[in-house]
Each structure stands twice: as C-alpha cells, then as structure tokens.
Amino acid sequence: MNRIRSLSLAIAAVAAIALGGASPVAAAPRHGITGHVTIGPISPISYVGASSPTRPYSATIVVTGKTRSWTVQSDAAGLYTLIVPPGHYTVTGLSSGLLPHAPRPVAVDVTASTFTVVDLRYDSGIRLPGLLPR
Questions:
Q1: Domain limits for position 69
Q2: Of 33, 45, 78, 122, which has the fewest CB atoms closer than 10 Å, so is most exposed?
Q3: Closest CA to 56 of 42, 76, 70, 71
Q4: Radius of gyration of the CA atoms of the chain, in A
C-alpha cells in the first residue's frame, strides 16, 4: 500500500511539473543585499575636477538586522551578495586598522523578490597636500 501511495505521489509531482505547475522543490530566495566594494584613491596625485581612480577591494562586511547579524567577504573583484529576509538592515564595512578608512554604515530596506544594491567605497588615505591644477 505504501509503495502504491509513493508511486502515486511521484506521478502527481511529475504531472504537475509537466503541466506547468509549481515544482515540489521550494524556490531559492530571491532577495537580499548585493554590491561592489572599491578603494581609492589609488594614486597620491589628484587633479581639480578629475575623478579619483579606484580599484576593487576585498573587505569584510557586516549586515545587521533587527534580531541577527551576518558577515560576508567581498571577493577579489570587490563583489558580494548576501541573501537575507525582507526587512531593515545596516550594512557596515570593517577596517582592521586606521587605514583604509571604512565607509560610513548604510541603512537599507530589502523588499521581497529584489536585491538591494549597496556599493561601498573605502578611502585609502593616499593624498598629497592640496590639489594640483590640471
């Protein structure tokens, strides 16, 4: 009897999938926080009116929610993604010392079925006194 019931459930699942029904396997969450971490400037010379060049940066990022915190590491390309439930979060980039300067924490809201983009820029601290005219 159990064998017939198991076979019937398997046939029903295959039929539901074939007819466009929902998969019996739950879909992966499609909401969270993602972003790109950079550091700059990467040259001690800055020109008035010119943007400062940056490069990707591997950093430790802490995401704090109402009842829980997560830690994620950006990769060598500076990219990170963290799946979290919908809600309000604070994204904080960590720094192991005085330099580089970590960015200020960012408050974000994550809604269902979306990834909230939070790009972080670390300050390398590389500067020459004053700006050079171009």
A1: 32-123
A2: 45
A3: 76
A4: 23
